[in-house]
Every structure is written in C-alpha cells, then in structure tokens.
Amino acid sequence: MNSSARALISLITLWIIRILFIHSLIVLAGCSGVSREDSLLKDPARQAERDRMVDEEIIPQGIKDPKILAAVRHVPRHKFVPSDYSDLAYYDIPLPIGHGQTISQPSLVALMTEALALEGAKRVLEIGTGSGYQSAVLAEIVPEVFTIEIVEPLATKAAHTLAELGYRNIHARVGDGYRGWPEEAPFDAIIVTAAPDHVPQPLLDQLAVGGRLILPVGRDYQTLELHYRTAKGFERKIITLVRFVPLVRERQQE
C-alpha cells in the first residue's frame, strides 16, 4: 500500500472516530436522566457560593429558621439577575433587574420571610414579583404562592425563569398589587416587596385570622412593618428601617 492510500485511510478513520464520538455525546446527553431543571439547580460551583453567602452573610444576621436557610441555599439567585450581574449574585446586595426595579438583598428576603412565621401556612400572597426570586424562596417552604407584578415585561420574564426551574406551585398574574387577589383570599401570609406610602386596606382585608402581612411603608426610606391579624383586629410591629422601590400602581388608581 502506497503512502497516499495510507494517508487516505487514516483520514477516513479519524472522521469515523469523530462522528462516533459526537454521537456518543448526544446519546449520553439524552440518556443521562438529568432534566433541564436539575441541571439548572445542581451547579456545584455556584452551590458553594450560595453556601458561603448563607454561612457568612445570612446566618450572622440572625436568621435561624432551617427551612428558610435551606431555601436560600437551594434557589439559584444567579438565574434571577441579569447576566451582567451574575458574578455578584451571591453577595448580600440588591441588584438592578431593569424597569427601575431591583432584586432585594438575600438577607432581607430571608428576614421578611422569617417574620411571616410560615410554619403551617398553606397559601402566601406576594405583591411585586420582580425577578421571581422571593417567589422561589417562598415556593420552597409553602404549598402555594400567589404573586402579582404590575410591570408586564418583568412578570413575563419571572414566569419564564420560574417555569424553567421547575416551580409548579407558583400562580402569577399581571396587575395592581395594591388590590391584592381577592378571588383567592384569604391568605395565611402576605409579603409586599415594594413600598406603598400607607398600608393597603385590601391586603389587610385578604389576610386570614392568625395571618401576617409584612411590607415596607413610606417614601424614600421606609419602616418595615409586620401586621398580625387577630380575631379582634390587627397588631402592628416595626421591624427595622429599609429602602425599597415605590409600589407601582395602575394610572387610574394613582
């Protein structure tokens, strides 16, 4: 066999090996048994970042509820922020998400969630879906989450992210959060992630007896307030000073 023939055979052999290798990758990907959802949630490198954040920035701030700590360890916050900010996702800071809105710092998400005392809660209403991160944390803890966002592009993107991550217990809608979701009331807990200048009466009305409402109230800097509904009325507690974006309302309601 001359050198030209041997070279041709070698070339053909290399192409066959390459084709078989690519085919094997396709087969392995199709038979791995790992869903898209699992692939997104199980990212070892970013899991280490979440663990560091919880251990060094969340627990030291006094968050103790094991279910909340587990939720923050599990939810991939980097999936809820713009790609430009992905490297900052596991620092305890708020980040812009577009349309003049932000994703809250994880310690504040944990603080507000813990204040709701969700043990035994079945249905939680969230006002201000934003990126969907708070929705995901809640969905790790309670059976049903109802969330409302008035900015339609944010609502659409959040719904896509939550669906991509496999959350099936979150019910989302576009609308004026001030009005709540009366047809689904009462709720065991309500969380508001944008600041009205007063406590919306519709949200108080939609809170079940024994339920809790947490929200920032005021302009510029606000007080974070917890309202607890009893059989006789409401009890109010000031938790801390915070700064949230204003609660956006429909034009006819301004």
Automatic annotation (TrEMBL):
It comes from the Bacteria. InterPro entries: PCMT (IPR000682), SAM-dependent_MTases_sf (IPR029063). GO terms for biological process: methylation; protein repair. Its EC number is 2.1.1.77. Its main location: cytoplasm. One of its GO terms (molecular function) is protein-L-isoaspartate (D-aspartate) O-methyltransferase activity. Keywords: Cytoplasm, Methyltransferase, S-adenosyl-L-methionine, Transferase. CDD domains: AdoMet_MTases. It is found in: Cytoplasm. GO terms for cellular component: cytoplasm. The active site is at S104. The keyword S-adenosyl-L-methionine applies. It catalyses: [protein]-L-isoaspartate + S-adenosyl-L-methionine = [protein]-L-isoaspartate alpha-methyl ester + S-adenosyl-L-homocysteine. Catalyzes the methyl esterification of L-isoaspartyl residues in peptides and proteins that result from spontaneous decomposition of normal L-aspartyl and L-asparaginyl residues. It plays a role in the repair and/or degradation of damaged proteins. Belongs to the methyltransferase superfamily. L-isoaspartyl/D-aspartyl protein methyltransferase family. This is Protein-L-isoaspartate O-methyltransferase. It comes from Nitrosomonas communis. The lineage of its organism: Bacteria, Pseudomonadati, Pseudomonadota, Betaproteobacteria, Nitrosomonadales. The gene is pcm.
